[in-house]
Amino acid sequence: MRRRDLRAGLVGLLVIIAATVIFTSNSVLAEGFGGIEAGKWIVGYRAGFAPLTQQLTENTSTSIGPLVNFQGMYSLNTWFLVGMMLEWERHGVSVERTDRDLGHQDTVSVLPTIELRPVKVGRFTPYVNMSFGVNINSFGEDTATTISPSNNFAWRLGWGGDYRFTERFAFNVEWAYKQNNGHATVNGIRNDDWNASSFGFLFGGKMFF
User: What are phi and psi of 206, to 5 degrees?
Assistant: First the structure.
């Protein structure tokens, strides 16, 4: 399953890059290749919400949770950036059949990141990014049931855009898929069907230095 998700993500990344380049071809010819100046630092703060992509585990339902993301990137040239993301999300978890709250799962993701900015269209710059790192999961119980989710491999694929109001500040929107697929120990018994992968919708600002 993880290999299939990774292959699908890589194909999706290539499709997004190709579509972006084709769609903005006239702007590329007018303004040149590349969506950022070389040697720039970008610091971003975004917040939003994140629904899970599927059921967390059998007979449970999860809430659409809050999502907070911090980002720091450095442009090596006019189109390629490297950096780091730190992301937090929380989801309330309940039992479906009895409608009983179990508690909430928190995830902190540490994500080394690469980003591509192939073009700039006036004040707007589209981009795609990809991250590989670790999900640090924890669970806060509301009942006597003890739940301990595993930490696991994190893979994130995002795409979005910046609208530059000034040379230093931009409004940002981003949509991303993040893999968070592992296991959990419930009352001492291991449950291998525990998948907190999610879609994230982020809105915020970025500073350019």
Answer: -135, 145
Count each helix (H run) and each strand (E run) in the chain, helices first. Answer: 2, 12
How far, in Å, CA of 176 to CA of 50, rounded? 9
- In the numeric block, the tokens 């710059």 are attached to 125
Tokens of 200: 């994230």
Q: Alpha-carbon distance 90 to 86, whole Å?
A: 14
Q: How many CB atoms lie within 10 A of CB 41?
A: 13
Spatial neighbors of 151 by CB under 8 A, at least 6 apart, are 134, 135, 136, 137, 182
189-195, strands of its sheet edge to edge: 147-149, 181-186, 189-195
Longest dimension (CA), the chain: 64
| Residues 179, 194: Cα–Cα separation, whole Å | 12
Q: pTM for the complete prediction?
A: 0.83
- The residues that bridge with 156 in the sheet, in sequence order, are 131, 178
Joined together, the tokens standing for residue 32 give: 């040149």
Residue 24 sits at φ, ψ, to 5 deg, of -105, 25
Distance (Å, whole) CA 139 – CA 150: 10
Paired tokens of 187: 């009352």
Per residue in 54-92, pLDDT tens?
Answer: 999 999 999 999 999 999 999 999 999 999 999 999 999
Q: Could you tell me the domains of the chain?
A: 2-208 (2.40.160.20)
Can you tell me whether residue 187 is helix, strand or coil?
coil
